Amino acid sequence: MPSIEEEALKIIQSRPDGVLQSELWKILGIDSRKCSRVVKKLFDGGLIDRTEFRDEGIKTYQLTSRQQAIDPALFMAGEELIPCIACDLDCIVEQCPLILDWMYELAITEVNE
Ligand code: SF4
Hints:
Blueprint: H1 4-13, E1 19-20, H2 21-28, H3 32-44, E2 48-55, E3 58-65, E4 76-77, E5 80-81, H4 97-112
Helix pairs in contact: 1-3, 2-3
The site of iron/sulfur cluster has 9 residues, from α4.
């Protein structure tokens, strides 16, 4: 089960413009004080930025992720998952037959789309 920090980060990452802290605690179903602690942990960990924001005159923070979530589709060539995931070979990319095969599959997939 993901921690509340992981859930919060996922929500923040899912929105390119970020999320207001005053909305985040409602989305997470926690109270605003606990949300402040979660946000502080994420901020102190360098995972998010926070910018002061006035929402109908009330001070809150716009929370944005320093890294956006990666689209898993980018790791696929058709049905083929990129071989680098969990690869434990000594990597010399230019000489790797696995990545060459995967790139070939990617080219075929893109031509067929
Ligand atoms: S390029 Fe080849 S050797 Fe390098 S990580 Fe990917 S699959 Fe492994």
